[in-house]
Write a structure and sequence with these properties.
Length: 306
């Protein structure tokens, strides 16, 4: 608990805790906002300011300080956390006004995402390079395959339970637990079905409907435990498999979201449908994952003959 909050009294302390429990439902957002607010309140506390004495000029100075150590998106996130928390403190009558309300963050416009993307051939090379003689190998292939063909976030994939992969008639479906408590149900690509069926048969968890779909390994035995994979586990798996396949070390879990969207658009898919599959609120967000113009741009650059 930041000292500025404690010094402001019990009402401020309770309201500060309520901000994270009542206002923010997403665990990752809660963690990020908590770090941002702890850092800000420690910075202002070092300058002998009480909670009531924090003014816009101090918030603006803190933003300028953050610009020297963080990227603009991170600075904007920190400012959003400060602004949202002080709004909550104002409505709870802990402070009279929000000192961050009038402070502008850095300008940041993104028209193309920075996530590295695999070509269709490289994605297939990665999947084919995985040794599937053990349940762990089958798990890793199914994990990566699912992220590619459903455009799913890694947090949604690691949150899957066995019952979230289900069949209606001859069609198989994936029920993804997305941000904001929303569910997104997408048809399973036939290659995902093959990979998941092989994994479930080898892993032996097909009958455990309430258990996690993707589970951690038991040491180097090749067998699976009952504990679910975390996002960090999934990243380590991806890094290990990417290195073994001889691909770029820059690749990450988010790569497969961008790879799947790009492959879909290259084969005649539309941004609007890709938006629905990916669960994006806006097609502008989906467009950030579109790398179909990369090859065209390279061809045009090569026209410069000197």
């Amino acid at each position: 608990m930041p000292s500025l909050i404690v010094d402001a009294g019990q009402k401020a302390t309770r309201r500060f805790l309520e901000f994270f429990t009542a206002q923010i439902r997403n665990r990752n957002t809660r963690d990020a906002y908590h770090r941002a607010l702890v850092d800000f309140l420690a910075w202002t506390g070092d300058r002998n300011a009480s909670l009531e004495q924090i003014e816009p000029i101090q918030v603006a100075a803190y933003v300028e300080y953050l610009m020297t150590i963080y990227s603009p998106p991170t600075v904007k996130q920190h400012l959003a956390a400060i602004r949202m928390c002080f709004d909550w403190l104002v409505t709870g009558q802990v402070v009279a006004s929000n000192p961050a309300a009038s402070v502008r963050g850095p300008k940041y416009v993104v028209k193309r995402g920075k996530t590295p993307v695999l070509s269709a051939e490289e994605a297939r090379q990665l999947l084919d390079s995985i040794d599937c003689s053990t349940a762990v190998g089958l798990r890793d292939r199914a994990l990566i395959s699912l992220m590619i063909f459903t455009f799913a976030r890694v947090s949604a994939v690691t949150a899957l339970k066995v019952e979230d992969y289900y069949h209606i008639g001859k069609r198989s479906w994936i029920r993804l637990h997305e941000k904001g408590g929303k569910f997104l149900e997408v048809p399973a690509h036939h290659k995902v079905v093959d990979d998941l069926d092989a994994y479930l048969e080898a892993g032996g968890q097909a009958d455990d409907s309430q258990g996690p779909l993707f589970r951690t390994a038991i040491g180097r035995s090749g067998f699976l435990s009952e504990r679910p994979l975390t996002r960090q586990d999934a990243l380590r798996i991806v890094k290990r498999r990417v290195q073994a396949a001889g691909l770029s070390e820059r690749l990450c879990c988010h790569t497969f979201r961008a790879t799947g969207i790009t492959a879909y658009l290259e084969n005649g898919g539309t941004i609007e449908k890709a938006q629905l599959i990916a669960g994006h609120e806006s097609p502008r967000t989906t467009k950030l994952y579109d790398r179909t113009s990369d090859e065209l741009s390279l061809d045009e650059v090569e026209r410069i003959l000197i």
